[in-house]
Write a structure and sequence with these properties.
The protein is of the alpha+beta class and 321 residues long. The chain has two domains: 73 residues, no CATH class; 209 residues, no CATH class. 45% of the residues lie in helices and 10% in strands. It contains 13 helices and seven strands. Helix 2 packs across helix 13, helix 6 packs across helix 8 and helix 8 runs antiparallel to helix 9. The longest helix has 18 residues. It is elongated and about 75 Å long. The termini are far apart.
Length: 321
């Protein structure tokens, strides 16, 4: 078997891994089960009988961070600013009751009003205010004012979760009935499809851009994706430019990001979050709300280890006369 950088391989005991580098007498492989930041260095040709080409894809290895060669050790390490699978999961476990409950033998977690809990309350508010065809009924009746009022109620549930600069002001943005009518028509068309469709997505993006008080460009992504995410977290994902891009950088995800909302960026994000959700399901993850928790957990700086104060030195007492 010819080994090439970037290919997935299966080791008889170490599992599936990704080739980071190939040298004349060694191959460097980062294994999905690895807990560290250093790729394994396997001797060639000794390692060849234990390696085969891996079948299928692997969610974590597909988004593997960049590696750099450490000259002092001759090993390949995760580049600075990136994060490994083990580190990412550890951060998720620390903030997610679902992940804690998914641990074998773990005690049931206490109910916490954490980020995921608040998103789910917002989803319940959507179901109560606009779900079950109620939003479409109001639109068909021409009651745009009720649509706006109910959307604002839903928005208030999530405002504390969003940075001030990225909080959409629906009441102001939807002040024009005709613009609001088109936005809700586009929104319901997007939500009606079993999975996101390009034509419906681009129609909603155009409706957001055409609002009489359009959001600033850096907030347009968040305005565009907020209600789809709240209404259908099973298929849609929230895009918060700063957080989403920072998480993608740390996790090695290529979003093909553009400040102007684009279908290419959205589909790249959904492909990545779909892979992440599949990997988080054994820890109790249900939908993109849990993926949102995962991304935020891995953007925040890790908690600092308290420094142990130095021991106080006992002053020496002179015995001289």
């Amino acid at each position: 078997m010819d080994l090439e950088k970037g290919m997935l391989v299966q080791h008889v005991s170490l599992g599936v891994g990704k080739v980071v580098a190939v040298e004349r007498d060694a191959v460097h492989v980062y294994f999905a089960s690895g807990d560290g930041r250093v790729a394994a260095k396997l001797k060639l040709p000794t390692a060849l009988p234990f390696l085969t080409a891996a079948a299928g894809a692997n969610a974590w290895l597909a988004a593997l961070p960049a590696f750099r060669l450490a000259p002092e050790t001759g090993r390949y390490e995760v580049a600075d600013g990136r994060i490994t699978q083990a580190e990412a999961l550890e951060r998720y476990r620390a903030v997610s009751p679902e992940a804690a409950a998914g641990e074998a033998g773990a005690e049931p977690p206490k109910v916490r009003r954490d980020r995921a809990w608040k998103w789910r309350r917002a989803h319940e508010a959507w179901e109560q205010e606009l779900g079950g065809g109620e939003g479409e009924r109001l639109l068909a009746a021409g009651d745009v004012g009720a649509l706006v009022a109910r959307a604002v109620k839903v928005e208030h549930h999530v405002r504390p979760l969003l940075p001030p600069a990225e909080r959409p002001a629906f009441a102001a943005a939807l002040s024009d009935p005709e613009s609001a009518r088109e936005l809700f028509a586009a929104l319901f068309a997007l939500l009606a499809a079993p999975k996101p469709e390009q034509e419906a997505f681009e129609r909603l993006a155009a409706a957001v851009a055409a609002l009489p008080a359009p959001p600033a460009l850096e907030s347009r992504w968040q305005v565009l994706t907020l209600l789809p995410f709240v209404a259908r977290p099973d298929v849609h994902m929230l895009v918060e430019p700063r957080t989403t891009c920072a998480a993608a950088l740390r996790l090695g995800i290529d979003l093909a990001y553009t400040p102007e909302p684009s279908w290419a960026t959205y589909t790249a994000l959904l492909a990545a979050t779909g892979r992440l959700l599949a990997q988080l399901e054994p820890l109790g993850a249900r939908d993109h709300v849990d993926v949102d928790t995962f991304l935020h957990a891995n953007v925040k700086a890790p908690p600092r280890t308290p420094r142990t104060p130095p021991a106080r030195r006992t002053p020496r007492v002179s015995t001289a006369a």
